[in-house]
Specification:
This protein has 4 helices and 7 strands, in the order E-H-H-E-E-E-E-E-E-H-H. By secondary structure, it is α+β, with helices and mostly antiparallel strands. The protein has a single domain, classed as Alpha-D-Glucose-1,6-Bisphosphate, Chain A, domain 4 (2-Layer Sandwich). Helix 1 crosses helix 4. InterPro entries: Polyketide_cyclase/dehydratase, START-like_dom_sf.
Length: about 140
């Protein structure tokens, strides 16, 4: 699943909102993220950041793609466990005049835990678009 939209903000502004886990609950269109500790800003492939979900569970997010200001992707996992195979990805394409095309993708084609399939199917294009809309509102207000 993926969604794309233009945002009236520079890519660097948008990327900061994505790469700082403490700010992610502000734009999460799945209403799944409750909080993340400050100081976990993602800087490279191999980084791991932790978030608390609205149901109280924790997730370790393993960064698998990183290009400062352009691309960020991670695989979530239960603490201490191997990621089961789904990926959250953000891609930013700078456009003219401080605008950015942003694509948000949820890829569960390699998800191995069948117990997560129902939740994966519930992550629709509309929910991804909701995250994009919330992210745009934050970025455009900066």
């Amino acid at each position: 699943m993926s969604a794309r939209r233009e945002v009236a903000a520079p890519a660097a502004t948008i990327f900061e909102l994505i790469a700082d886990p403490a700010r992610q609950p502000l734009w999460d269109g799945n209403d799944n993220l409750a909080e993340a500790v400050e100081g976990q800003r993602v800087r490279a492939v191999g980084d791991v950041f932790t978030v608390r979900l609205t149901m109280g569970e924790e997730r370790e997010n393993h960064v698998v793609e990183f290009d400062e200001g352009r691309r960020l992707a991670w695989r979530p996992a239960e603490p201490g466990a191997e990621p089961p195979g789904h990926v959250w990805r953000w891609e930013l394409e700078p456009l003219a005049e401080g605008r950015t095309a942003v694509t948000h993708t949820y890829d569960w084609t390699h998800l191995t835990d069948e117990g997560r399939f129902v939740r994966a199917r519930a992550t629709t294009t509309e929910r991804l678009a909701a995250s994009l809309d919330r992210l745009a509102a934050l970025a455009e207000g900066c």
